[in-house]
Amino acid sequence: MATSSNVEAERKFDAEESTPIPALDTIDGIGKVGEPGSHSLDAIYFDTHHLALAARGITLRRRTGGPDAGWHLKLPLGPGKRTEIQAPLGTAETVPVELMDRVLAYTRGHAVAAIANLNTERTSYALYGSGGERIADFVDDHVSAHIIIGQGRELQWREWEVELTAQDEADDALLDSLTEQLSDAGAKPSQRTSKLATALGESWPAPRAPDRGTASAKAPAVVPVLDYLEAQVADLLLQDAHVRLNREDSVHQMRSLIRRIRSVLHTYRKLFDVEAVRGLQRELKSLAKTLGRYRDTEVLHQRLRNSIGELPEKLVFGSLHDELDQRMTVRADTALSAVKTRLNSPRYFRLLDNLDAFISSPPVAPKGTEPARKTTAKLVNKAVKRLGKRHDAAVSAAVGPQRDTAFHEVRKSAKKLRFAAAAVESVHGKRAAKLGYAAHKVQSILGEHQDSVMAREELLKLGSATDTGSSAFTYGVLHAMERNAGDATEQEYLQGGSKARTLRLKK
């Protein structure tokens, strides 16, 4: 089933039944107003019994009538903006799979059913710029709502909307100008976020975001950390849909978000109840491991394929490309199936619930209430020292698997340091950003080193298999190439990775 998406930028206005429509052609930037068009729109809105979608500002509906009849899913994008995904009408009994995949991280196994029916009698006016281009639409809506959920009730109201037909910074300025001029003409900007919010009234869920103040040097240390965690979890919920929809690189992006969350929880664990943090870390680690099996296969497959492609033909024995593709495809399919199973499990949904609860009602320890600048600097600087210790252990380790493992530990420490610094940029500014950049450099260099280690392990298995035959020679050549690549990245790190071990945040 085909879907389409666009960014919706609109402003709403309250209007009484007797309020006349403003003279739209007198508004600056409007060269012409089109003839009015009328439509009867009937929309059924869907949600869980506890309004999980509404709590996130998400609306899911099936609408008939008008030029865009079909299923519509609207996801918050920013003030006055939403991403709208559309799917064909289908039936009212079944939400399209493509849309359900986008909201499963919010509904979490709970059934979705009709909660309200809205009938809208709409009169629309196309607004054209001075060059004749259509720049916006003004609509006058008379709405009748039947609430299905709860006690059930009926209500009616009138509202206006101005919606842009395109999206860029200039159009945002135009929308602001239109809003200001319509307000001057007597229109009253609405506090409504959607028609469904108006229909549900007091049943509409309260805002999820807790009021914990603004991150600053003297604010509680948990404030910047919780702000960062909240943003990462929000991105994780969006990325969930991309994995379900098999978007390219989505598993990698989701695993990266999980690592960010887990790393920040680790560095700042003393700001919270230790047991609560440990429980989240344990589940995040398990989920990252499930995702990692697929991601590691993906990276390894591409790396080995590229390496084979770089060899002269005379050094390639056997059908290596076909053998590699077959082996890795089976492994990737198995790993991806495990990912999909995990994302549909009660265990995963419980983790999302626990992350939400941790952020909305954080189990703050006494240390978490101390001033942010001094407290977070101490914890980040401790992470720098830890990186230094891992570095010393790596350079003193014997060449071979032990040394490779030690450099992998350096990489993991650099990754934690990077995310720890990113979490407190709002308090420490450019110095935290500089430290994060230095740590990222170490992570990237040693990431290449670790990819080489994994490639060597795989090539050793392939080359020593009993049915390898003449291909063993080529696998040996590739193994030697990877050994050289690993040595080169190690030297690159030793020559340019010291900055992350020397920078400190100021208390």
Mind sketching the topology for me?
Blueprint: E1 4-14, E2 32-33, E3 37-47, E4 59-64, E5 70-78, E6 81-87, H1 97-107, E7 113-128, E8 134-147, E9 153-164, H2 169-184, E10 188-189, H3 195-200, H4 222-244, H5 250-267, H6 274-310, H7 320-343, H8 346-360, H9 372-395, H10 401-423, H11 425-428, H12 430-464, H13 471-496, H14 499-502
Antiparallel strand pairs: 1-6, 1-9, 1-10, 2-7, 3-4, 3-7, 4-5, 5-6, 7-8, 8-9
Helix pairs in contact: 1-4, 4-5, 4-8, 5-6, 5-10, 6-7, 6-8, 6-12, 9-10, 10-12, 12-13
Description:
By secondary structure, the chain is of the alpha+beta class. It is built from 14 helices and ten strands. The chain has an eight-stranded antiparallel β-barrel with strand order 1-6-5-4-3-7-8-9. Strand 7 (about 115-130) and strand 8 (about 135-145) form a beta hairpin. Helix 1 runs antiparallel to helix 4 and helix 12 runs antiparallel to helix 13 (about 470-495). The longest helix is centred in the middle third of the chain and has 37 residues, at about 275-310. The chain is globular, with a radius of gyration of 28 Å. The termini are far apart. The mean pLDDT is about 90.
